[in-house]
Design a protein that fits this description.
Blueprint lengths: L5 H25 L14 H37 L14 H6 L7 H17 L4 H6 L3
Length: 138
Amino acid sequence: MEDLTKEELATLAAQMDAEESRIRAVAGTADSPVVPPTQREHRDEGELADEKTAQRQGDAMLEHYRMQLADIDAARSRMRSGQYGVCIDCQQTIPFSRLQAYPTAIRCTACQSRREHLHSRQAQDTPRPASADLSSRS
């Protein structure tokens, strides 16, 4: 397989810069409260439940953004060390087309597919807790 050119690396670095800027712009607004403090009086249980749901969704999105930023930082570190674009499983070069679609990829498509298939099978083979069985019977 062929190594990435300097132009391809620059394109991918710019793509990661743009994605980081987008994430920081969106995540910056996610810290604001869903309901302004002055409107928090006299709420019923439904309103409280809606607020808790919105808070959980916001927390999940913030965690997702944090993970994306960590992936970008890790990809930049691999670029600096000369390991960017090399599959961590098979040590082959990850094609530029895959990196354009997913610049923080650590595996080539074949190795990623194998990993996902393996984890999918492991999840199917894992017994569910008894509490999960009871909740699905209602």
